[in-house]
Amino acid sequence: MALRNIFKEGEPILRRKARVVEKIDDRLLTLLDDMRETMIKADGVGLAAPQVGVSKRAVIIKPDPDSDEIIELINPVVSEKTGVQVAVEGCLSVDPSKNCKIARPNRLKVEYTDRDGNFHSEYAVGFKARVICHETDHLDGILFIDREYKK
Ligand code: NI
After folding, report:
1. Is the pLDDT of residue 19 over 80?
2. Domains in the chain: ranges and CATH
3. 124 neighbors 85 (Cβ within 8 angstroms)
4. How far is CA 120 from CA 75, 107, 116, 135, in A?
5. Is the pTM of this model over 0.85?
């Protein structure tokens, strides 16, 4: 495993739509391993491949900030968003001075493939739903600052 450089706001790759992962090969597994190490070192709760300069639809998340569990989502697709939760968000790619309140759905359905090629379809609520939204936004070139909640 190796630490990767985290790309910051202003880098074009953070504004690009990431490419679908066509096959789970060693290159992708190494990427996921490196993303884990990079996120832990940076004390983050989520990281998307474009943030380490790779235009692929892969993200990792910590579903619970108080647990060490990390989930890897390949080609995640979010649907069935319901409810609203508002909380302050930050991002490893954005200066902390820009942290701000963001409205996110409180519940959603997420479908993804894991590193073993298994397909998952499940529901997430609360913090986990928030992090999934934040990270899947990265795959579409969206940063949380685009969604600032002004009210
Ligand atoms: Ni982020």
Report:
1. yes
2. 12-147 (3.90.45.10)
3. no
4. 11, 16, 11, 17
5. yes
